[in-house]
């Protein structure tokens, strides 16, 4: 019997879109046909192993049967802002690339042995309303120095209380969204960046027509050049690196397009699926597939 490794990073857990106006962006995503969780303010440790304190940022989540999306913004600038304004100074859009791990401590140890600047495990918590009353969702995060992973805030996340996040009442979406399937990131030198992520994930990348892809146990992580991003999706990267697009699998594209048309959302058939431009989704391009 093969023993399950506890130091693997093997899933596309979630992607977070950082926004200037969290309230307005929530309305935007409801117009796209997503069901959002109620506002939840973050709290966390500011140092590895430190006390958990209230932060000034909050989120709404879009819980899918596989993975989830997060809208994040600052609601109290007098508290720790989680460096969100620094990310927004680059662009509004996708900035957190979160991958799943089963054990934060052993994952951090492995990354350190791989030469990454892993500095231990950070605790994170936020209060959530559940059918049984308010509960505290808790996570362990393994972060790397931003200079080592400039593609965004790259982190491995260990869910300690997944039952509080994936509540049935928030997992049915009018647009039919089911799964977070792919995250596309634009970089200048995909081959070099892919070699770094090979050490991060512990698996080889597959090169396919000017892109480098990691097929994880859950979801795919794809690296492309600005030229490939433009030719395939018509997206002009405002800078590099740039977390450019999210692919979402839906129940039926026909129903998705009907809802988008009804709500007056601009979209196009990109050949890869139904594409919603960043201008319609607070800086994040979405591609719905079936």
Task: Report on the architecture of this protein.
The protein has 290 residues and is of the alpha+beta class. The protein has two domains: 9-170, 2,3-Dihydroxybiphenyl 1,2-Dioxygenase, domain 1 (Roll), CATH 3.10.180; 177-289, 2,3-Dihydroxybiphenyl 1,2-Dioxygenase, domain 1. It is 21% helix and 39% strand. It is built from seven helices and 16 strands. The chain has helices spanning 22-31, 84-90, 104-113, 162-165, 190-201, 226-233, 253-262, and strands at residues 9-18, 40-45, 52-63, 68-74, 93-101, 122-130, 133-143, 153-159, 177-186, 206-207, 211-215, 220-224, 242-250, 268-269, 274-276, 285-289. The strands form two sheets. It has an eight-stranded mixed barrel. The longest helix has 12 residues, at 190-201. The two termini are 36 Å apart. The model has no long low-confidence stretch (mean pLDDT 94).
Sum up the structure in keywords.
single chain; 290 residues; alpha+beta; 2,3-Dihydroxybiphenyl 1,2-Dioxygenase, domain 1; 2 domains; eight-stranded mixed barrel; eight-stranded mixed β-sheet; 7 helices; 16 strands; 21% helix; globular
Shape: globular
Name the CATH homologous superfamily of the largest domain.
2,3-Dihydroxybiphenyl 1,2-Dioxygenase, domain 1
Distance between the termini: 36 Å
- The CATH topology of the largest domain is what? 2,3-Dihydroxybiphenyl 1,2-Dioxygenase, domain 1
Order of helices and strands: EHEEEHEHEEEHEHEEEHEHEEE
Number of helices: 7
Major sheet? 8 strands, mixed, barrel
The fraction of residues assigned to DSSP E strands is: 35-45%
Domains (count): 2
Poorly predicted parts:
none
Total number of strands: 16
* Rg value: 18 Å
Mean pLDDT: 94
The CATH architecture of the largest domain can be given as Roll
> What strand order characterises the main sheet?
1-4-3-2-6-7-8-5
Helix content: 10-25%
Structural class: alpha+beta
> For this structure, what is the CATH class of the largest domain?
Alpha Beta
């Amino acid at each position: 019997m093969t023993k399950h490794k506890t130091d693997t990073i093997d899933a596309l857990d979630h992607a977070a879109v950082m926004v200037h106006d969290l309230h307005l962006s929530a309305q935007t995503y409801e117009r796209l046909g997503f069901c959002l969780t109620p506002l939840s303010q973050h709290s966390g440790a500011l140092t590895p192993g430190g006390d958990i304190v209230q932060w000034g940022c909050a989120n709404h989540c879009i819980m899918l049967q596989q993975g989830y999306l997060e809208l994040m913004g600052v609601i109290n600038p007098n508290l720790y802002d989680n460096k969100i304004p620094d990310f927004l100074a680059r662009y509004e859009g996708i900035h957190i690339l979160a991958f799943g791990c089963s054990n934060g401590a052993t994952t951090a140890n492995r990354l350190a042995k791989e030469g990454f600047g892993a500095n231990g495990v950070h605790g994170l918590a936020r209060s959530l309303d559940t059918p049984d009353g308010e509960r505290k969702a808790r996570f362990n995060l393994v972060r790397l120095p931003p200079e080592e992973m400039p593609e965004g805030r790259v982190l491995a996340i260990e869910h300690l209380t997944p039952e509080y996040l994936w509540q049935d009442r928030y997992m049915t979406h009018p647009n039919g969204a089911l799964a977070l399937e792919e995250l596309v990131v634009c970089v200048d030198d995909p081959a070099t960046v892919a070699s770094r992520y090979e050490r991060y994930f512990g698996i080889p990348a597959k090169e396919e027509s000017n892109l480098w892809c990691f097929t994880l146990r859950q979801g795919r992580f794809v690296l492309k050049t600005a030229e490939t991003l433009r030719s395939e999706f018509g997206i002009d990267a405002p800078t590099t690196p740039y977390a450019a697009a999210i692919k979402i699998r839906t129940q039926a594209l026909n129903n998705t397009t009907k809802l988008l048309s009804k709500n007056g959302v601009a979209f196009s058939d990109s050949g890869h699926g139904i594409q919603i431009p960043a201008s319609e989704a607070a800086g994040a391009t979405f591609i719905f597939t079936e």
